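Please, is this right?
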Amino acid sequence: MPMNRYSGKLQLMNSKDIAHTLSDAFAIITERIDIVQPLWSGYGAIARYWTRDCETPSIAKIINVHAIPQHPRGWSGETSHQRKLSSFVNEQRFYQSFSSQLMHVARVPQYLNASNSNDAMVLLLEDVDAQGFAQRLMNPSIDELNRCLAWLARLHAYFLQIGVPETLWKRGNYWHLATRQDEYQQMAEGELKQHALALDQLLFQAKYQTLLHGDAKIANFCFSDEACLALDFQYVGAGVGVVDVMYFLGSCLTEHELEKFADDAFDVYFAHLAQALGVNYCNTHLSALETEWRALIPIAWADFSRFLEGWSPSHHKLHGYSAKQTQIGLDALVRW
């Protein structure tokens, strides 16, 4: 078996307790192969396991309900902790309800099982590496960028047509204003802070709402030679599709690349969206949807900048391009 790739102590529990928790939760678990990575802020780990009667391994996402968060920027209060726990439940509900439905639409890891106790949450998923999606990229090619935009378009198209599930978060993404009041209070006074609520409400009250991935950064996409899938659905919930696209582009393009490629990337996204929606929907809604969502692109940039300015004002994503888009968004408020 491969050696563990993460040798530090898990805050969740020791190896014996992990094995005990999993054996209690899933009779199909047999043997751990390795720990893939720790979870953000010390909430547990993602580990790979052999399961009974399977030729390929499975992935267990193991969460310590009683974790004492260790956030690198100090955001470790009770509000942050409860948001995290809620996000893990949200993710389980998404996989349980939609992973199989999305198999041939916008591929995600397939759900196998889940178990929650007073001490831990465990989510068991297929190992996408074993399914051929073993590539991780930080600097995608144009073709790989296009695959991710197509994946996002298909996800959004699917839920535009069937509606946003009531069982998932009413607002998608991890930075929307209602859950980031501590960060808002830390913002420097200025135009962006003054208009934060107005920006948030424009996104919240948009007519066309879909299901957002909510954390659609390039690190949450896995690639095969010809396709891609996405994982990590803690922050899935309702919103406008361009929020996912904006966040995705900002995760893998530099300031210069955004200046050069962002407009074209949004064009590609909308072309994929039209293709995924089909003729009947497009004849009725596409023109109005695209007009609304394109107008909200700089609003989305401004809303994300609002979060970053409170959370980490020196963050590398606060650059010239994001500042320009933020100002366009603020200037556009007078037209609404």
